[in-house]
Design a protein that fits this description.
The chain is an alpha+beta fold and about 300 residues long. The chain folds into 3 domains: about 60 residues, no CATH class; about 100 residues; about 90 residues, no CATH class. It has 9 helices and 9 strands. The strands form 3 sheets. It has a 3-stranded antiparallel β-sheet. A hairpin with a 4-residue loop joins strand 4 and strand 5. The protein is flat, with a radius of gyration of 25 Å. The chain binds zinc ion (ZN). Zinc ion binds next to loops.
């Protein structure tokens, strides 16, 4: 049973006991601190919601969640773990869930989802519909590319694998589902000669950015997130340790378990750096939020030139 406590400075916090009987308070997901509510009822309602989520998480972890849990509720209780790391991939996963999975599967109990044989609850039938663009969330007149069908399906399949691994289901209904073939086109790449030809048509600032990644092998997110303070022009090295997460417009440091790379600078790369950094103030901060909470005291190397 959840409750609300008045706070000394006014307002309320919402409290509940977790499955181990320990007191918990509703937290603000952004800051991790106890959340303050203006109204007592709001605090208690939020605590009730957290209490339900906590007991569901515990039930799943202990293999006690009944198989009749609706897919949407199941997803919400496992996605806290999956979404913990901020990245473009999570943003994509979230939009796949809200556009294609929740409208179709949100209210369907897990144990009613079957591999094939039902227009309503068959995974194979759903994949076939998806392949032809016959689903609610799909708004274009041409059907989705096979690779996108794979991508949507992969999120659903992952949820079913968790359901099986945690004992909520005894088998996954995704076993034996056939997906549309992906076209085997070679991945496009750019060789040096073509890059040069292409560069002739680019604006000079874009051209510098493309040339620089050609010289150093940086990925687009690394290129856009490159800060001037990690470039050691005198020694001819830079260290790659941050990326721009474009969709959220934030700078994310590499997680601790991934290696920061040191990359040598070629003469051409140094020439480009000098051109980009000349005459600029490099200690004002880049103006974007750094997700590790540090205050930025550098500048992004590559910025579009305002003409
Ligand atoms: Zn910055």
């Amino acid at each position: 049973m959840a409750w609300a406590d008045p706070l000394p400075g006014g307002g309320y916090r919402g409290g509940y006991r977790d499955s181990a009987g320990k007191k918990q308070y509703v937290k603000d997901p952004a800051t991790g601190r106890t959340r303050k509510f203006g109204r007592k009822k709001d605090a208690r309602d939020a605590a009730t919601e957290e209490e339900v989520k906590a007991s569901r998480r515990a039930a799943i972890a202990n293999g006690l969640e009944p198989a009749r849990i609706p897919w949407g509720a199941f997803w919400d209780s496992i996605s806290d773990d999956r979404g913990a790391r901020l990245s473009d991939t999570n943003v994509v996963e979230h939009s796949i869930v809200e556009n294609y999975l929740r409208p179709k599967w949100g209210k369907v109990p897990l144990n009613q989802i079957i591999t094939r044989g039902s227009a309503e609850h068959g995974v194979q039938e759903w994949v076939n519909d998806l392949e032809h663009g016959r689903v609610d969330g799909w708004k274009l007149s041409r059907p989705p590319a096979p690779s996108y069908v794979h991508r949507i399906y992969a999120v659903f399949q992952a949820s079913m694998t968790v359901a099986k691994d945690t004992g909520v289901l005894t088998t996954s209904p995704c076993v034996g589902v056939k997906l549309p073939r992906k076209s085997k086109r070679a991945k496009p790449y750019l060789d040096a000669e073509n890059a040069e030809k292409m560069g002739e048509h680019l604006r000079s600032d874009y051209r510098d950015a493309v040339d620089f990644s050609g010289e150093t092998g940086l990925r687009p997110g690394e290129l856009c997130g490159l800060h001037a303070n990690y470039v050691d022009r005198e020694r001819g090295w830079m260290s790659v340790r941050e990326v721009l997460v474009a969709r959220r417009r934030v700078i994310r440091s590499f997680p601790k378990d991934e290696d920061v790379r040191a990359v040598p600078l070629t003469p051409k790369a140094i020439e480009i750096l000098d051109r980009q950094l000349k005459g600029r103030n490099l200690t004002h901060g880049c103006g974007l939020e750094h997700t590790d909470g540090t205050e930025c005291a550098s500048a992004l190397v590559f910025l579009p030139k305002s003409s």
